[in-house]
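User: Fold both of these, please.

Assistant: Here is the first one.
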Amino acid sequence: MKVKLQDVIDGIDMVSEDSTCYLDRETGEVLFISEIADNDYDDDILELLEEGSDRFIEFPSQWDRNDYQTMVDFIESLPQRKEQNLLAISINGSGAFRRFKYTASELGLLDDWYRFLNNAHRELAIEWCEDNEIEYEE
């Protein structure tokens, strides 16, 4: 069975403090499980998840995804100039993500940032598939 790489990327994007995603090895379906929203899955599926069934593989956590480090990598990928310095300052302290996006937008770099972030998530998805011996298709 092959999974669509974009489904894996989307699952990685959705993972947060309050939610996770799993791949069902039998069906290839991506299951989104939230602590704060209704999980609209069959009770048998939810029970198997709770029991830790080998049928399901958990997606990387938000900590594995590490979008903060991706911001640092993006900044380091820029030429040494004013934009790089302003973005580096923006990620210090509380509210770093909000300030970073605002600053990137003001500098006209927001589209570049999202391309960089999407590529990082794509690379993580490929690595995760390979580590778990999951065949994928573009």
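And the second sequence with its predicted structure:
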Amino acid sequence: MKLYLYITSVLLTVLSCSKKSCSYAIIGGEIINKNTNYVVLLNNKEVIDTLVLDGKNRFSYKLKNLDSGFYTFQHGNEIQKVLLEPGDSVMFRLNTLEFDESLVYTGKGAKKNNYLINDFLQNELEEKQVYKFCALSPLDYQSRMDSIRLQKNEKLKEFQLKQMPSDLFNKIAQANIDFSYYASKEIYPFIHKGRGKEKKLVDIPDGFYDYRKMINYNDDYLANHFAYKSFLKSSFNNIALADHLEHADNGYVWTNCCYNLDRLTAIDSLVQNASIKNELLYYYSMHFLRVNKDIKNNAKIVNYFLSKSTNEENNTSITAYNNSINKLRPGATFPSVELRSIKDSIVNISSIIDQPTVVYFWSHNYKNYLKDSRKRVKELNVKYPEVNFISVNIDDFNKSRWVSTMQAYKHISKHDYAFVNPKESVKQLAVYPVTKAILVDKEHVIINSNANMFSKNFEEELLGLVNQF
């Protein structure tokens, strides 16, 4: 650790410069419990370079002719952003077991980035509070949200007076506060009485949405900022709900085809920026496909999506995902997929399905789900000994990373496997989200390809699976 700090201090001393004389910035870091041997650096979604980690899992990179703004670094499937301006020499250190929570910056430009990452983590914690506050009346809820916004503004002013950050940082930090506040207003009617289950929206006081008059739904500069994107998603959920209830009296809307078409239509109407529109259309179409259980409605969503999306990669992805779902419909035979065991033997999943089976998945990117799912399976094993639970890691990492994680959590069992060909198998089994589970009978016939072990009716499904024969 002392050697790392020494190298960092020397690097900053040699390479740092004033913003007036610099046109470049330095970014470097150290990865603890690495998932791969490299870090990918991106500007928006364009890859700048792939940076190989040295023998001590470190890297350093000089960005020449720097354009001030956010840059993305990706390790494995985890990503995070760093704000870089000319003259910055930003180093970070993180542990992949707690990617965001362990991230700490040092060097010139570190304070603004530590402020932003702490703000990001604080927003995640506050989100749970906000959902609870949604039970309040509109005016009481607004008062709570105004209070949270005021506290954030005071914290930002204190930082500004002490650190004298750039106009760019000020713009970004203020946008984070404002769009988090706007998003909280948008989710209120949707969450207030059960995520759109009501046939009538709660009465909203005048002025509740006055900020919408100032919103730019096509802000190219903020297009890749988390708070802005989160606001857009919350906003279109709410706008579509109001539109939907004008011509329908349906309750729960997440899997309602009409509501989802209303949402896509609202996006098409209000968003002209191609990048923003394509991302929102893709996000909501994929969301519908993964939660919908009535497959006959999928074609309506897919066809509308393809008629509006101009991103060929997204179009191909949606089409492939829909095709995979159709092949996994109830009554179909479970696909042939190769798995790797802890002992490094290769098996076809069909060879280990000889009784009612639940196939479930996990990823290093969702550590809490790994812990929760293992605990859940342990409980279910006691209740349903007739059922075999097969755990599959979906990551495209080397075998040692997978095995070391299982050993660390003391979770190894004879039913633990990993995909031999992760990218291909994830697409084939439509593993999106990772929380899905697939129920298969002893004859390899799919009963449900979109189950959830934590849903309230999952045990009823297991009973049906056990009593089928």
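The chain has a mean pLDDT of 88.
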